[in-house]
Amino acid sequence: MPTIHNNENDVPVGLQHRNLKMNRQAPYAGLNDSNRAEKRQRLIKKETFVKKEPVASTTSTSTFARRPALGDVTNRINVKKSSTMAMHQKKTTTIKRSFTVYEPKVPTTPVVNTFGSLDLSSPMSVAKAVDLETIKEEESVSHDIDSEDKYEASACWQYAEDLTKYHLETEKQRMASPSYMARQSDINSKMRTILIDWLVDVHCKYDLHPQTLHIAIHLIDRHLEKHLSVPRQRLQLVGITALFIAAKYEEIYPPEAKDFIRITDNAYTREELFAMEVDLLSSVAYRVTFPTAYQFMKRFLKASRTCDDRVEHFAHFIIDRSLQEYKMIKYAPSRIAAAAVHIARTQMGDTPAWNSTMEHHSSYSESNLHDCVEDLKEILWNAQNGIGKTSKLTAVRRKFEKERFMAVATLKLAFADAQ
């Protein structure tokens, strides 16, 4: 028979804790449903909840909380963003705009504007004035040949026209006298022509810049003008020294002194070359920059806006040929260049041969060029037909018969029938 335990302590050990746990989880055991609900409500009302207040720090008087454990590692106090927003808010100001009404001032007396001799008080006069202004603006635009080079770093397009005007003013001050050869004691114009013909061959042999040749010829004439007793035996030394100076001034890699000595078949020494260099530079006061026909020719060709390369080569042929002629010294380099461009455009069929833009940049009208044009045509005609003493000197002709210059020296002259 099962054993009956009347004492609580007589319960087996394995069941004591289970019964105790069950009694704790069921405090309302033994009550009926109505009594259990009423008892539950009374117990809920008696329960109180205690809210823990934060313990104030005894080591700091600050009202701010310290940094969190995994927050900022410094001892800086963490301030809530909400507490600093007011400190960083920018003040906004409103701009009050005031509007001022400007009233035009009406003159008390009528003003009559004049444009030259035109009275602008009438509508017809105003229309004429506007037309004249438009014409002037169109002419200024058509005469502008430099603005197209504004993206070229080496063009100096803003100063090109001013430089041309300066050269036109100074060229006459640096021209040699057209009568100096008559005062020479031992040399004549024929010797000068032979010397220049030989220098053209030397110039081509060393492949020098065209400007170098023109500066050299100018140095020769200026020196012979100052030294009227130059012996003919030293005329060749004057020529190679002038080319030596011009090459050092114009070329990037000029020939050396020994090259110019060797080209004379060692007729002179280096010491003589250097001594003549000092004399030549003294004759021109050490001013080697001369306005030449070549640089004027380039400027006038640009003003002509020609697209035919033969025009440039033929004009170049003319100005190089004019260097040999002593009679052409009486003309300024700019006039020779303008006349050469005129003849070249006529030769190649560019019409008109001379226009307003070319006249503007050269300061020469077509009538001003007539005498120089006729002299140059005569020189070309005689050279092509073997007439005259200088026709046998063919260095310039051989130079421009090459394909490099489109063989312009072999062209039949367009004005041959007029001679």
Automatic annotation (TrEMBL):
It comes from the Eukaryota. InterPro entries: Cyclin, Cyclin-like_dom, Cyclin-like_sf, Cyclin_A/B-like, Cyclin_C-dom, Cyclin_N. Signal peptide: none annotated. Keywords: Cell cycle, Cell division, Cyclin. Belongs to the cyclin family. Pfam families: Cyclin_C (PF02984), Cyclin_N (PF00134). Residues 197-282, 295-378 form the Cyclin-like domain. The keyword Cell cycle applies. The lineage of its organism: Eukaryota, Sar, Stramenopiles, Oomycota, Peronosporomycetes. This is Cyclin N-terminal domain-containing protein.
